[in-house]
Design goal:
The complex is a heterodimer of chains A (115) and B (115).
Chain A lengths: L2 E3 L4 E5 L4 E3 L2 E3 L5 E8 L6 E7 L7 E2 L2 E6 L4 E6 L8 E9 L7 E2 L3 E6 L1
Parallel strand pairs in A: 2-12
Antiparallel strand pairs in A: 1-4, 3-9, 5-6, 5-10, 7-8, 8-9, 10-11, 10-12
Chain B lengths: L4 E3 L2 E4 L5 E6 L6 E7 L5 E8 L2 E4 L8 E5 L5 E5 L8 E8 L9 E2 L3 E5 L1
Parallel strand pairs in B: 2-11
Antiparallel strand pairs in B: 1-3, 3-8, 4-5, 4-9, 5-6, 7-8, 9-10, 9-11
Chain lengths: 115, 115
């Protein structure tokens, strides 16, 4: 069974600074996908970024980028130039190649942005 | 519609009663997913639909849980003889098709409280 672990229940960062959220996972699969989702107080989950395991290049989306270390089974999210609107719960998720519909989520990291 | 909608937003029920939770996916989306988010936890996959059929029901916690989808659109998650441990936020998502490259768009969820 796959598991996803987010070891930081809470993080805070000053506005305009950079913050990194950690995620590790455990799987015996060789092909899979990784995701970061954001959940604001409205409860609606929003996809932030995704990474295919077979790609060596780290995914980036504007101010969001990942550091994917396949051998270490690590998938951290870096948020640059943090903005007040980035405050939310962030969830790391894993999906095996064969059953991509079954996302396995970590327990989340609550990110606070200090003005 | 503009996004995934769920009803009711909040539901309070007594232990032993049945509840029905509704999800209206984005128009044209063929895949639909149900997740459960217990307090302070990540999301737990329950079931997904491709069209009207559910290829994988293994995530349903017990036989008290069932889900159906009709007309390839609206889905209902039914919990029979509710228990206090069923208290959680139930999130629905939809995607254009069931594949990793298809972003899952989430609704705002239904918060269920079983007294």
């Amino acid at each position: 069974a796959q598991t996803v672990t987010q070891s930081q229940p809470e993080m805070s960062v000053q506005e305009a600074e950079t913050v990194t959220l950690s995620c590790t996972y455990d799987t015996s699969e060789s092909d899979y996908y990784l995701f970061w989702y954001k959940q604001p107080p409205s409860r609606q989950m929003i996809l932030v970024i995704r990474q295919e395991a077979y790609k060596q290049q780290n995914a980036t989306e504007n101010r969001f980028s990942v550091n994917f270390q396949k051998a270490a089974k690590s998938f951290s999210l870096k948020i640059s130039d943090s903005q007040l609107g980035d405050a939310a719960m962030y969830f790391c998720a894993f999906a095996p190649f064969q059953v991509v519909q079954k996302l396995v989520f970590g327990q989340g990291t609550r990110l606070t942005i200090n003005p | 519609g503009a996004g995934v909608s769920q009803s009711p937003s909040n539901k309070v029920t007594e232990k032993g009663k049945d509840v029905e939770l509704r999800c209206d996916p984005i128009s044209g989306h063929t895949a639909l997913y149900w997740y459960r988010q217990s307090l302070g936890q990540g999301l737990e996959f329950l079931i997904y639909f491709q069209g009207n059929s559910a290829p994988d029901k293994s995530g349903l916690p017990s036989d008290r849980f069932s889900a159906e989808r009709t007309g390839g659109s609206v889905s209902t998650l039914t919990i029979q003889r509710t228990q206090q441990e069923d208290s959680a936020v139930y999130l629905c998502a939809s995607s254009l098709a069931a594949g990793y490259q298809e972003t899952q768009y989430f609704g705002p969820g239904t918060r269920l409280l079983v007294l």
